Amino acid sequence: MRTSYTIPLMIFFAVASFSGGYVFGQSPVAPITLFGASTATPKEAQATFAPFWETWDVVHRRFFDQTAVNDEVLMQGALEGMLAVLDDPNTRYLPPEDETAARENMSGEFQGIGAEIEVNESGAIVVVSPIESSPAEAAGLQPGDILRKADGVDLTGMDASEAARLVRGPAGTAVLLTIERGDETFEVEIIRDVIKLASVRGEMLADSIAYVRVNRFAETTADELEKSLEELTAQNPTGIIVDVRRNPGGLLQTAVDIADQFLPEGTVVVERFGDGRETVFKATDKGLAEDLPLVILIDEGSASASEVLAGAIQDRNRGTLIGQTSFGKGTAQTWQPLSNGGGVRITIARWLTPDENWVHGTGLTPDYFIPLPEFQPDTPFDDTQLDAAVDFLSGKTVISIPPSEG
After folding, report:
1. 329 is catalytic
2. Is residue 124 domain-shared with residue 207, that is, in the same domain?
3. Using an 8 Å Cβ cutoff, are 151 and 166 in contact?
4. pLDDT digits (tens, 9 = 90+) for 26-84
5. Residues 161, 293 within the same domain
6. Looking at 4, 326, 329, 391, which residue is catalytic?
């Protein structure tokens, strides 16, 4: 069983379901398996499950259309229904094909359009983040876009996995999406491609400022970041920008390891379980960039592990947050493989910032609100948030522009 810090129910529009840490990592206090892959109902649960087997029996004996009775589908429906009544959007069953796809995604590349989605409270499929340098990003998909149709098929009311299966496909093929953005509805054709998932990119900007882009918090991300920091700090930067915009999250331990590069010794995040137990994850005093002036760029697509990092930096007054309010996912999930090749994802804990703030549903508030200009096709993009971060570290005045209420 493994613990992940990822956006709820998000799926890569790809050959693989979105994992973003789903099959990575393990909490040291994750629940143990009680019954393993037992094929028999546990003795203590036999009375409780008697109505289930009675219903199973009557369906097989009496349902008028026996061609519609598929044991695998019935079983999956039962699992989905059991988890649905827990009323937690992050607790769900993944059928074998989605579980296999999630594991395939661990290779670091997949085929699709490259976007993460979730299902909102109205049952609509919503874009959380397009992946950097993906066809989805090139086509202008934005966080908050609602995907209404794929090749004419209505997506509203589907679960994320079902919608993803309609959109993903082999590289070189096209999918026609109907997008709702605010009051506007339009169509966009996207050519699927092979998406490579390098998780860290670093470079030097103007005024000797180092820039590090972190796309996700995967198994190799901490090592990638350390290598990037070694190269950048050798150039004696005057400050550093860490960009976790549109980063949907990933491994808890990776977030802690990355925070450790920037924080002195102390708390990074607190994991609090339903029975009151807590695990406190701390930074050491061995980071490569503990003394560099620091800006963290966040936006509405920065979630989970991104918020763990940014929340620790903010609470401990180590750096400045610039951008937009983050996504707001403050729970942790563990993953349990099943004997049929599927998997169950279960929320097991809340996570809290060092000051024990819970960001769930609210997100992190940046120190400086900086809006981005509207996307315009065939027009060079002006990254006002990155510009503001460079100005801040260069000692120039930065004006915060909070979003208007209502």
Report:
1. yes
2. no
3. yes
4. 333 333 333 344 557 788 888 998 999 999 999 999 999 999 999 999 999 999 999 99
5. no
6. 329
